[in-house]
């Protein structure tokens, strides 16, 4: 069965480039990004893992732990990491899961038979500290991920998890947000003291509350 937003992220034990892990223990109280790759030594994935490594500080300041997956072996990953470090001028410090039996890929519905019977699509899951799936994005093998978008949605997910707001189209951290419809207009000043703008009765904006 496919996973949906709000579902519990399946826990698993796995061999990785950094030894055996228990996924839930690895995440601890952090947010998590789990993302898959069709195979080791593939060009687009090499650039993606390099970009992820270069954004280490950005993920850390958001309390996000990153973990990648490929259906090749954990031992194979080690040689590939050397190539990533060399070609992308980075140091990969996060683990890459070896999923040779594809059990994790199947649990997370990462194999789409109409795309490939054996290789994972580029699935990405953002998982909250409550171990529930907050976001799913799947890319075809030929299209690399946009990591600025991944950081943007993490900012949105974290903001909206703790404040009664939503983020509008193309929102970036620091911009105005939308007050949830469940909040009455007369109650907005007490909850959002920075003020608000009523564009329509159902569309009220306010400065980002945690800035």
Task: Write a brief structural summary.
30% of the residues lie in helices and 24% in strands.
Set down the secondary structure blueprint:
Layout (H helix, E strand, L loop, with lengths): L12 E4 L2 E4 H5 L3 E7 L5 H12 L1 H6 L2 E7 L3 H15 L7 E3 L4 H5 L14 E6 L5 E7 L7 H16 L2 E2 L10 E3 L8 H4 L5 E4 L2 E4 L5
Parallel strand pairs: 3-4, 4-5
Antiparallel strand pairs: 1-2, 3-6, 6-7, 8-9, 9-11, 10-11
Could you characterize what this model shows?
By secondary structure, this protein is α+β, with helices and mostly antiparallel strands. Helix content is 30%, strand content 24%. The protein is built from seven helices and eleven strands. A five-stranded mixed beta sheet has the order 5-4-3-6-7.
The major pleated sheet works out as: 5 strands, mixed
Radius of gyration: 19 Å
The overall average pLDDT, rounded, is 92
The proportion of strand residues reads: 15-25%
The SSE string, one letter per element, is EEHEHHEHEHEEHEEHEE
User: What is the number of helices?
Assistant: 7
Helix content: 25-40%
Distance between the termini: 40 Å
Strand order of the largest sheet: 5-4-3-6-7
Overall structural class, as computed from helix and strand content, comes to alpha+beta
Q: What's the count of strands?
A: 11
pLDDT < 50 runs, ≥5 residues: none
Overall 3D shape: elongated
EC number: 1.11.1.24
GO molecular function, one term: thioredoxin-dependent peroxiredoxin activity
Keywords: Antioxidant, Oxidoreductase, Peroxidase, Redox-active center
InterPro entries: AhpC/TSA, Peroxiredoxin_AhpC-typ, Peroxiredoxin_C, PRX_1cys, Thioredoxin-like_sf, Thioredoxin_domain
